[in-house]
Every structure is written in C-alpha cells, then in structure tokens.
Predict the structure.
Amino acid sequence: MYSIFDWLGDTSNTYTLKEFSEWLTIVVSSVGIFVCLRHALFFNRSRNKTSKKVKKVFLTDAAVYLVTFLMGVGLYFNLPVLVHYDIIIRPFVLILNIVATVALYIHFKKLK
C-alpha cells in the first residue's frame, strides 16, 4: 500500500512539483506583499506610537515576502544571480523583522 509518507519520501517526483511550487511561491508572496503593504498604509495614517510600531512590523513582513518573491522568480526563470543575492539579503531582512516584532512586543508589555 502506497501511503502519503511514501509519496513525501519519494524524491523521483520532485521535478514535477518544482515548477508548481515555484509558481505558487511567486503567487503567495505577491499576495503577502500586497496585504502587508495595505496594512502598513492603514497604520501609517495614525499618529499613535503603537500604530507606528505595528506599521514597521507590516513593512518588514512585506520585505520578507519580497525576498521570497524574488527567490521564486529567480528559481522559476532560472536566474542564479537573483537567487544568489536573495540568499545574501534574506538573513538581514529576517533580522529586521525580528527586531520590529520584539520592539512591538516590548511596547505592548509596557502598556500592561
């Protein structure tokens, strides 16, 4: 009997999933960028300190989606240079996202 675990462990089907997963990465990342930027614009209108911190979190989230989008485009169109720079930039974007999230958490903790 062929189970889902056998299918997941079978690497012979990787090539057939490759194009779909690259395309899906591009689409999901595009939606993520749009949603995060839309939320950042919403919080940008407020003068509240908390809103500014939330805006920074959404902007860094959009940056994470952007580098993921670039990775998907680089893999889909076989652009090794784009993938190379994405791998270099991604850790810094993730660090910025962590810093923004921790700053928001500290701010909320002080409000309590």
